[in-house]
Amino acid sequence: MGPSSEIPDTPVGDQLGWVLDTLNGGIARESVASISGRFAPSALGSVSGANLMAQLGYWADRHVGYRYTRSEGRPSRTHLSSIVVTATMEFGLIEIQTEPEEPYRIVRFRIQPTEPDG
Fold it and tell me: The sheet that has 106-113: what strands, in order across it?
């Protein structure tokens, strides 16, 4: 199966959709509580909801027009490393891992700049 430019229709894909929406202006609709609700208690043990909101806000302020381009590696229902590109052609890596069962909250989250070829 080759790379796809569509976000996988999986629980982790749903979380990536939320992250991209948040980065593309949705941060204004979020609160520390709503962001914290997306993350599992195990993730919030190492970083606070306020820090997550600040991290998302930083990336939302830094670039505009985030768009999913492809998965890096082999995605699963609960883990996805995705390459995104911004309107100004800046590339980034967003890695998300969710809980194995509902409500599929995020247990691992990473966003960082990357090269176009991953």
Answer: 67-71, 79-85, 91-98, 106-113
**Strand pairing class (106-113; 79-85):** unpaired
Residue 49: other Cβ atoms inside 10 A: 19
Three-state DSSP at 111 gives strand
Q: Which CATH class is domain 11-113?
A: alpha beta
Give the CB-side neighbour count of residue 11, counting CA atoms within 13 A: 16
The CA-based angle 28-32-33, given to 5 degrees, is 115
Q: What does the pLDDT look like over 86-101, one tens digit per residue? A: 999 999 999 999 999 9
Q: Average pLDDT of the chain?
A: 93
Euclidean distance between the first and the last CA atom of the chain, given in angstroms as a whole number: 18
